[in-house]
Amino acid sequence: MTIYDDAAALAEKLSSTDKVRLIERLSLLLRRDLVTDDWVHLPWADFVQRTAGSLADDPVERPPQLPFEDREPIP
Description:
The chain is an all-alpha fold. The chain contains three helices and no strands. The relative contact order is 0.05.
């Protein structure tokens, strides 16, 4: 028996309300997978075009350089 067969058998035992909840959950997972698959197969230039400026409201900033630690000189 496959995982699908097990899930289908269990789904038959669910109430109508729980079946609706299961469908909503599966729909959410499928949408997430489809979006992920789209990004995986997206050409590099298109990926850069879509994500360029995504941090415009929260730019990455480098903090000031910390002072170097004093160490013993090498003989």
